[in-house]
Amino acid sequence: MKNLILFLFLMVVALSASAQAAKDLVISFGMGYSKITPTKTVLLPQDGVSFSLDFDYFIQPRHVISLSYHNASNKYFYDYSTTIKGVEYKAFENIISDSKFSNISILYKYKIISSPKWSVLVGTGLSLVGHSRRFLDLDFQPNTIYSGVVTRHLFNQDLGFPVRVEANFWLNKRWALGLHGGLFYIPDEVPTTFYIQPKLSFCIK
Length: 205
Hints:
Blueprint: H1 2-17, E1 24-36, E2 42-43, E3 48-60, E4 63-78, E5 81-84, E6 87-90, E7 95-114, E8 118-138, E9 149-170, E10 175-185, E11 193-204
Antiparallel strand pairs: 1-3, 1-11, 2-4, 3-4, 4-7, 5-6, 7-8, 8-9, 9-10, 10-11
């Protein structure tokens, strides 16, 4: 992990050192579809909604450093059980869970297709992933086996690896319509998030 961070940092420094004097900043907003992958405890994930806000800084005509915020909301069945005194108790066979993923990412993008009207970019980098979920749970109290149902709120953070592919059609020198999609891969058990979004972009020259 440290070697990867160091490599990305050195790559940014090297590209910035050779950057042109005039640089463009492109601000994009997208909203669309998201999906998470099943895991041992995440069962039958449902389709969700996501949105993103991106700041793309063109350090060279084909090289981009991007700061991105991405938020996705999904529901799935949470397979939850609790063991009390050696006995396993299941809080409903499947518990519906409201899940939200909030990702802040730094990406390096490369423009593989560049023309006055069309551009296609691919990118990857590092993400700080926040995963919050809300679900019903059995409420165990001292000296009792079961005493009701409560709503639990859990939150955890981890590092992830974003992958992005995007295409843009430039209406003029300032505005563009596009489509981007990708995934956030988290090495731990947190589900991988996939998304695809139409987007609107504005270029500040």
